[in-house]
Amino acid sequence: RWQKIFMIPLWSKMAVFWNKMFLTIIVLLIVLFLDAVREVKKYSAVHVNEKAANVNTNAFDHIQMKLFRSQRNLYLSGFSLFLWLVLRRTVTLLTQLAKGMASHAALETQVNDATEAAKKYMAENERLQEALNEKGSSKKKESAEATDEKLKKEVEHLKAELQKTSSALHKANNEVTAVKKQSEGLKREYDNLMKEYEWLQ
C-alpha cells in the first residue's frame, strides 16, 4: 500500500527536492528551537530579577506572559524537530521495505520461470531419448548422442542459473527480514519515546 502511495507521480516529482526540503525544514526548526531556548533563558532571568525587585503587578504579568510564550515556542519547536526526524526515518524504512518486497517478488517469479523452463527441457530431453532409442540406426544414434549432449549442457546451464537465482532469492529474503527487524526496532523506540514524552507531560 505504501509503495503504491509513494509511486504517485506527485511524490516522484517531489522526490527530487525532498532532501533539500528536508534539510531546509531541519535548519529552520533548529533555528526556531535555539531562538526559543534563548528567549526562555532571557525571560527566566528577567522574571527572577523582577520578582526580587518587587515591581508592579502589570510589569510582572507582562514578563510572565512573555516567559510562557517562549516556553510554548520551545516545546513546539523541540517536538516538531523530533517528530520531523522520526517521520524522515519512517519514510526511509518504508521505502526500503517496499523495494525489498518488490525485488523479492521479482526474484521469486524469476526462480519459478527458470524451474519451469528446466522441467520443460528435461521432459523434452526424455522424449527425444525415447524416440532415438526406438529408431536405433547408427547415424541417428550419433546425432542423438550429440543432441543429448547439447541438451545435457543446456540442462546443466539452467540448473546453474536456478542455483544462482535461488541464492539471490535467499539473499533478498535475508534483506527483507533485516529491514523488518529494523522497522520493528524503530517502532519500539518510537513507542518508548512517546511513553517518556507522556511521562514528562
Topology (elements, then pairings):
Layout: H1 2-6, H2 9-53, H3 57-135, H4 138-200
Helix pairs in contact: 2-3, 3-4
Description:
This protein is about 95% helix and about 0% strand. By secondary structure, it is mainly α. Helix 2 packs antiparallel against helix 3 (about 55-135) and helix 3 packs antiparallel against helix 4. The chain starts with a helix and ends with a helix. The mean pLDDT is about 80.
Notable features of this structure?
96% helix, 201 residues, 4 helices, mainly alpha, single chain
Helical content class: over 70%
Query: C-alpha Rg, in Å?
Result: 34 Å
Average pLDDT works out at 82
Compute the number of strand runs.
Answer: 0
Describe the main β-sheet briefly.
none
Order of helices and strands: HHHH
Q: Please, how many helices?
A: 4
Shape: rod-shaped
Query: Low-confidence parts lasting 5 or more residues at pLDDT below 50?
Result: none
SSE-based structural type = mainly alpha
Question: What is the beta-strand fraction?
Answer: under 5%
Calculate the terminal CA-CA distance, rounded to whole Å: 34 Å
| Oligomer state of the chains in this structure | single chain
